[in-house]
Amino acid sequence: MGKGGGCIFSKKRSTLEASDQDPPNPDRDAPVLSQNETAAATTTAITVENSSSHEVKKLKVFIVFYSMYGHVECLAKRMKKGVDSIDGVEGFLYRVPETLPMDVLEQMRVPQKEDELPVISVDELVEADGLLFGFPTRFGSMASQMKAFFDSTGQLWEQQRLAGVPAGFFVSTGTQGGGQETTAWTAITQLAHHGMLYVPIGYTFGAGMFKMDSLRGGSPYGAGVYSGDGSRVPSETELALAEHQGKYMAAMVKRLLSI
């Protein structure tokens, strides 16, 4: 060959004689494992494979709400804490779209909403394993913003995409006789047409449902808060009831989906 043209084998030794040792053989030269070591290695490999390919996904409970002055939002955030306390279940907070124009909201002195909470779309509802809807009352039934959101679910209703999904309610009213029960009760029609499963809390909150020594919203239909003229803040009992409802719904979702 010409200079630098490639490898030049020695003229004195053949290629087979270039080494006194046999060429490496991976199968032959691999370390010999004992029976116990082989079994342990196999078990480890299977465990790693299973853990990577069979990750357990948490069940999702969507807490979907409309809150004008923040009272329903307080309940929703505490409700998420209850949902998250159940192993294998996670809560997600969503707002529904606002329907009032900005100038009207300013005249009503409605505080600006936090940008950190996303606005839900109708199509996202089908991703939930359970749903909790929260809203203030308007003459004993849900506020128009939440009603408009339900009215936009026509395609889901036509296809019955939400049928069998457990759902519940929590509310806010301005007065003691303003609709703590009827606001949730009149909303049940929305669930019925979608084929969803209504999950009230009943009296599972225990002694807290019977106390008469302080002002408290909520009913067997779901958690509730009294907002008054908008300046009243939720009491600890009202927040505790909301947390209980989140925990109760998460446990019910987990039980229903394990059947």
Characteristic terms for this protein:
globular; 259 residues; disordered N terminus; NAD(P)H dehydrogenase (quinone); alpha/beta
Write up this protein.
It is a single chain. The protein is α/β, with parallel strands linked by helices and 259 residues long. The protein has one domain: Rossmann fold, CATH 3.40.50. It is built from 9 helices and 7 strands. Strands 1, 2, 3, 4, 5, 6 and 7 form a 7-stranded mixed sheet that branches. Strand 1, helix 3 and strand 2 form a beta-alpha-beta unit. Helix 3 (71-84) crosses helix 9. It is globular and about 45 Å long.
Could you outline the blueprint of secondary structure elements for this entry?
Elements: H1 26-29, H2 35-53, E1 59-65, H3 71-84, E2 89-95, H4 102-107, E3 130-138, E4 141-142, H5 144-151, H6 154-159, E5 166-173, H7 182-185, H8 188-194, E6 197-198, E7 224-226, H9 236-257
Parallel strand pairs: 1-2, 1-3, 3-5, 5-6, 5-7
Antiparallel strand pairs: 3-4
Outline of the structure:
Helices cover 35% and strands 15% of the residues. The chain has helices at 26-29, 35-53, 71-84, 102-107, 144-151, 154-159, 182-185, 188-194, 236-257; strands at residues 59-65, 89-95, 130-138, 141-142, 166-173, 197-198, 224-226. The longest helix is centred in the last third of the chain and has 22 residues, at 236-257.
